[in-house]
Every structure is written in C-alpha cells, then in structure tokens.
Amino acid sequence: MDMNTKTAVFPGNWSKGAGLLVALLAFATLAWASDEPWKAKSYQQWTDRDLENIFAYSPWSHTVALTRTWLPLKAEELPQMISGKGKQLPEGLAQSDEGRLGSEVKFNVYWSSSRVMREASVRKAVLHGGKSESEMEKFLNQPVDEYQIVVQGEDMAPFVRKDERFYQANAYLQLKKTKQKISPSHVRYERDAQGVRVVAVIFFFPRKTSSGDPVIVADEKSVEFNCKIEGSTFRVNFDPQKMLDQVGPDL
Length: 251
Known about the structure:
This protein has 7 helices and 9 strands, in the order H-H-H-E-E-H-H-E-H-H-E-E-E-E-E-E. By secondary structure, it is α+β, with helices and mostly antiparallel strands.
C-alpha cells in the first residue's frame, strides 16, 4: 500500500502483509508502552523512532479502514486544474478501476492541534525538511484557537469530488459525558504543489461554547470524530484522559 500521498507533516507507513502487520503492531505496542517520548523527553530530543511512535501509535493518532464504494478519479473530473494535451491525470492520481470497489481503504486521523502533534511536525521539519529550530519555534508559539483534526488517506478521491462545505455539514464531534454534538466551524483542504491532489483535510472545531465555557470538559473520557464519506461513516474515538504530555492535558 502506497502512502506517498501523505504530507511531510504527518508521515506513516503501511504493511502489505497481514501477518507482518500484526507482528509490527505487537512490537510497536510494546515499544510504545515502555517509551512514551511525549512524556519522557523534550521534543528537541525526539528521534525518528520517537516520531514514528507519535504519528502511528500515540493517543493523538488513529487509523480507520473503510470499504471502498467509489471509483478512482478521472481526468475530466479535474478540468479546472489540469491543462495540456490529453488532460492526463498527474502521477499518483491515475488508478485502475479493476478490483477497486469493495477493497479496503485506510485513513489516518490526527488530533493535530495538540502540542504533541505540533511538536512532532516541527521536529520532523527540522530533521528532514531543512527547517531551522528558530523558524519552527515561531510556528509553535502561534496560538491555536480551535481544535484541529486532520484526515489523510490512501485515496482522497471523495474529497476531490465534494468540497469543504459538504464535509463541514457531514462531520462532527460526539462528546460522551455532555452528549453534545459539535459541528466544524470550517473545513480546509491542503493540496500538493500543483494544486491538484488533496493531500490532507483539516476539520476545525470550537474550543469554547457561545457562553465561553470549554466545549470539552476536563473529565471527558470520549470524544468521537464522525465523518460521512461516500455513503459510509467512519468513527474515531479519542480519549482525552490519555492525551497527556509533560505539561498536562493536550488537545
């Protein structure tokens, strides 16, 4: 499975063999249980292995699988973005229809407004993106006024076919304790350098109610992210009681 469509901010790897995947997950779970870098050391000391633990196995990161109910993109679906003879789809977007319907598609879902995810993104940019620590420190110091959840997947065709307004109307957070259902304030697509491929979708949610109270209370134990995609709905449960770093609660 090719996850090259993932952005540099949220990396990840997929295993093609089910047996190998189970073995890797078992090893990774043991490694994660004994080594939680977000609690053990400052982000400036994180290694590539630490970043893999955070992006793949931390409480701020989840993977969900959907059964494909949509066909791959066609060049004519992107007329405003593609020009030139034959209107060829950019490399990576063109796929065969054969065997696609009914197959499994994986999506990564990240609570990206957290300190841990932001620090991991910064650390990766310093290690592999040619960014300076001082430049990235400015990014970390910027205020984050809303909760942000990022979705990335192996096939982002459903997001190309429907715009941000559709997903704003078809996604929400479900809170277990207060029973509240929180709709996104807005949704933003991140595209590749050519402006064609949707590489990530960011869902923004308010941190406070209209009366100024926290949307997610301190003792909340379950925040479920729901999103409708092509007739299916995926649900991802985040546990705020586990989303803790060296400072404290981290959403």
